[in-house]
Specification:
The protein is mainly alpha-helical and 667 residues long. Among the domains are: 25-142, Alpha Horseshoe (Serine Threonine Protein Phosphatase 5, Tetratricopeptide repeat); 373-460; 534-662, 2-Layer Sandwich (Heat Shock Protein 90). It contains 25 helices and five strands. The chain has helices at 4-11, 27-39, 44-58, 63-77, 81-94, 100-114, 120-136, 138-161, 164-180, 184-201, 206-221, 225-239, 248-261, 265-282, 285-301, 305-318, 325-341, 345-364, 371-414, 419-497, 506-529, 532-537, 539-550, 570-590, 629-640, and strands at residues 556-562, 595-603, 606-613, 644-649, 655-662. Strands 1-2-3-5-4 form a five-stranded mixed sheet, with helices on one face. A hairpin with a 2-residue loop joins strand 2 (595-603) and strand 3. Helix 5 (81-94) packs parallel to helix 7 and helix 13 (248-261) packs parallel to helix 15. The protein is flat. 34% of the residues are buried. The chain crosses the membrane at residues 406-429. One of its GO terms (molecular function) is protein histidine kinase activity. Residues 472-665 form the Histidine kinase domain. InterPro entries: HATPase_C_sf (IPR036890), HATPase_dom (IPR003594), His_kinase_dom (IPR005467), Sensor_HK_TwoCompSys (IPR050482), Sig_transdc_His_kin-like_C (IPR004358), Sig_transdc_His_kin_sub3_dim/P (IPR011712), TPR-like_helical_dom_sf (IPR011990).
Length: 667
């Protein structure tokens, strides 16, 4: 993970979300087919479809042509109720990039008018309308709003429409949202769902291309170069027959990202220049500026800070990337760092102040992405539907049993003389009753299992919330207080350069030393809250670093690891790290141990942890029914990882703890 600094830089420039626009990769053939429909003697409904498709096709390329097709489509649609309801949707498509407010109002109107139609084509339009409406309100309502709409509206409507390509598109967009919020594990999961679905149902589609390129970004941001290359090669294979496709610009953006990640900087510059030329040709302003920013990253890595600063100043003048507060704060921060490298401390301080003002504003109204909560609500709704179905089956089984008893009574009265037949009927009834009772037991067992799964999801959401809060506090310390200390240091450095004898002053040197110690202490606190070593180097290195961190005079901690693999999901690694951190912390606080042994090994998808200390020990029975944040968190994390805990201890005999965990979860 030697490029981790630059990976963080990439994160601060969010990937742009895309509208639902399923245009084939062979754009020329697609465009010709639509024009042929308009020139033929086809029904008005087919011509209206063609006009509206051309509105969508031209909205980013030529707004004049997009407008002309919108007017023509409206005229053709007037006689048909469904097509009249679709008109606001394509009005929103026309205003998509030029007037978000008008587009938002049009998509909302389309949702209202399409609500009275109940067929697959209406469900498809409702899915797209809801998602595009959310996109138009992203800057005002944030990623939470888009995520809620995508999970609660767009995906369910795509499922009702039976459209796997559309569903795959929304999975890719969810992955992009999660990636922009640094939730790379979940982003990878959703993007993989999209890839698997689209490779089966639409192997030559532009939607699959976007999923591949989204995967490139995710794997680059997590320094998984080999996986990123695999996705990039698949995308290149799809685009190879179409050298004039507008999607080649996005391909070169991700190729630049990949080469930067593996430190092939000359190749990265070449890819960026190819992408910039295409972006200018196709008038892709947003993507053009994002490619320009990639060149800034490359120049900074090459320590060519003069050209890097020039690019940043051009980005500020262009204003395309300055519309979003997060992007603006990031660019100001990079200007401060670049000017500091050029020893222009006054400019660095000015840019740092501008960044701090925007950051303070963002922090005051910041809303964390609640993907776990939204997923839980979505799955809970599905679980309730299943429970309702099971309850209905249970009621039917009870009704069948009641009817069977009635039938048996009538049969007994009518067949008093036929004892043999009566005996057979009674035996049959008993067997059916037992079967009904067994079914009822099975239903109750299923309900119990669903409740247990729901409790596990709630526990997972709590753990994810705890980690998000740790991350937020660490970021506030680093970006808030860290930024202020950085400003003070820049001011002192700038002032000291103008004073010939200031470094001879002992008080001044002591003040600078205290400032450095304060910065180091702040970094230590932030590091303890968010294990940076885990993100950079993986679980094995992070555990060794954790044990070394707690060692001191009178306490020896031995850390042994065997067969720990690099491909363990990040959220699983983080939970294992927290479990061991809690064990060490508890031993130090309560046992008075002088020696601690921690062993962590992996066999397939199973993790084994053995923890031993020579401390005072305790009676494990005292833990039964006990409550405490430490014990609760430990049990919750072990339960989430489908694990088992064994504690062997006695007073004055030390403690041994054995834990078995699974690296595969349902989350």
């Amino acid at each position: 993970m030697k490029n981790y600094y630059w990976i963080l830089m990439f994160f601060w420039l969010p990937v742009r979300l895309m509208a639902q626009q399923q245009i084939p990769l062979d754009e020329i053939k697609y465009l010709d087919s639509l024009q042929n429909i308009l020139w033929s003697e086809k029904p008005d409904t087919l011509k209206a479809d063609a006009c509206f498709a051309l509105v969508d096709y031209w909205k980013f390329r030529d707004t004049v042509k997009s407008r002309a097709n919108l007017v023509a489509g409206k005229k053709l649609a007037q006689k048909y109720p469904y097509y009249r309801a679709v008109i606001p949707f394509y009005e929103g498509q026309y205003y998509f990039s030029s007037d978000p407010a008008k587009a938002s109002a049009a998509f909302k109107k389309s949702i209202q008018e399409l609500a009275s139609f109940h067929d697959k084509r209406a469900y498809e339009k409702l899915a797209s309308a809801w998602y595009n409406y959310a996109l138009m309100n992203k800057d005002e309502k944030g990623y939470d709003f888009i995520t809620g709409i995508t999970i609660g509206k767009a995906i369910p409507y795509a499922e009702k429409a039976g459209n796997p390509v559309m569903k795959g598109h929304f999975y890719t967009q969810l992955a992009t949202i999660l990636m922009n919020n640094a939730q790379f594990g979940k982003a990878s999961d959703y993007n993989q769902k999209a890839v698997e679905l689209l490779e089966k149902t639409a192997p030559a589609s532009s939607t699959l291309l976007f999923a591949y390129l989204s995967g490139v970004s995710i794997y680059c941001y997590t320094a998984q170069g080999e996986k990123a290359l695999t996705m990039l090669q698949k995308a290149k294979k799809l685009l190879l027959p179409y050298p004039n496709s507008i999607n080649n610009t996005l391909y070169y953006y991700n190729e630049t990202l990949y080469y930067t990640t593996i430190n092939a900087l000359d190749k990265a510059l070449k890819s960026a220049d190819l992408g910039i030329a295409l972006a200018e040709k196709f008038h892709q302003n947003q993507l053009h500026q994002q490619l320009v920013f990639r060149k800034y990253n490359i120049y900074s890595q090459q320590k060519n800070f003069k050209d890097a600063r020039k690019i940043l100043m051009d980005i500020v003048k262009d204003r395309t990337l300055m519309r979003n507060s997060l992007d603006k704060a990031m660019i100001y921060g990079e200007l401060a760092k670049t000017n500091e490298q050029l020893k222009d401390y006054q400019s660095a301080y000015q840019w740092l102040n501008l960044q701090r003002k925007i950051t303070d504003s963002i922090n005051s109204s910041e809303s964390k992405l609640k993907i776990n909560e939204l997923e839980t609500k979505y799955r809970t709704a599905q679980s309730r539907q299943k429970i309702a179905a099971l309850q209905a089956q249970n009621r039917q089984a009870a009704l069948n049993t009641k009817n069977e008893r009635l039938y048996r009574g009538i049969l007994s009265i009518g067949c008093l003389l036929l004892f043999a037949v009566l005996g057979f009927a009674i035996l049959s009834a008993r067997n059916k009753r037992r079967l009904a009772e067994q079914k009822e037991i099975n239903y109750r067992q299923q309900l119990s299992e669903m409740e247990q799964k729901q409790q596990l999801k709630v526990a997972k959401a709590m753990l994810d919330g705890e980690e998000l809060e740790r991350e937020r506090i660490a970021r506030d310390l680093h970006d808030g207080l860290g930024g202020m200390l950085a400003g003070v240091k820049i001011n002192l450095s700038s002032w000291a350069e103008d004073q010939s004898d200031v470094w001879e002053d002992k008080k001044f040197r002591r003040t600078v030393g205290q400032l450095d110690e304060a910065v180091s202490e702040l970094r230590r606190i932030a590091r303890n809250m968010v294990p940076d070593t885990l993100l950079k180097f993986g679980l094995e290195t992070a555990l060794k670093d954790l044990c070394e961190f707690y060692m001191r005079d009178g306490l020896e901690i031995s850390c042994e690891s065997f067969g720990i693999r690099k491909d363990i999901p990040l959220n699983v690694q983080l939970n294992i790290y927290r479990i061991i951190q809690e064990l060490i912390s508890n031993s130090i606080r309560h046992s008075g141990a002088a020696n601690i042994l921690m062993q962590c090994s992996q066999n397939g998808s199973t993790i084994f942890i053995t923890f031993e200390d020579d401390g005072s020990g305790f009676d494990p029975d005292t833990l039964k029914g006990g409550k405490g944040m430490g014990l609760d968190n430990l049990n919750n994390r072990i339960a989430y990882l489908k694990g088992h805990l064994e504690i062997l201890s006695a007073p004055d005999e030390g403690t041994t703890i054995n834990i078995e965990l699974s690296t595969t979860t349902d989350g």
